[in-house]
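Technical note accompanying the year-one report. For the benefit of new consortium partners, we illustrate the data format agreed upon in the data management plan: each record pairs a sequence with a structure-token string. No post-processing was applied to the example shown here.
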Amino acid sequence: MEHHPEPESYASLRTKALESLLVEKGIVSTDAIDALVQAYEEDIGPRNGARVVARAWRDPEFKARLLSDGTAAINEMGFISGQAAEFVAVENTPEVHNLIVCTLCSCYPAGLLGLPPKWYKDFAYRSRAVIEPRAVLREFGVEVPESKEVRVWDSTAELRYMVLPERPEGSEGLSEDELTEIVSRDSMIGVALVPSPAATV
């Protein structure tokens, strides 16, 4: 995605300077930093959200609570959305596909999804997701038919969203732990679908 570069924040510049100093002094390697960031982006953080999704798929009463009062529902599982923001779960259905964005910066339910991916903070994603969401989804490999509505949800410092993906066919017999394994961070942002278990084998 092409975009106009934005000036880096003071916090970002300071973080890069600290990282450079630690690497220069041999305290930590760039590989170790990259591995840690990747773990929080793709494994540790998103696993919390995946557990919420798996619970909602298996427990209709929890799903109802999640959709009516997301903050209370995730709190009962011991999770928080991050920075005391209110949390809202929006459900993908055969009629509706949801997409999460933060047009102002990169507000995101970090307590459930970990660190936001780099593309989520990118100016092109933040602007185009609102203007042409179907085109953006197509670039991520998600083709949404014209018959299905696309809803875009704009997160803020006070309000964080997460997508409750559609449960894939063939997952009916899976346990909560097994369901957790097939839910990705990107599916909880709305830029990916959860594949059927047969497709992941």
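Partners are asked to follow this layout when depositing records. The CA atoms of residues 36 and 44 lie 10 Å apart.
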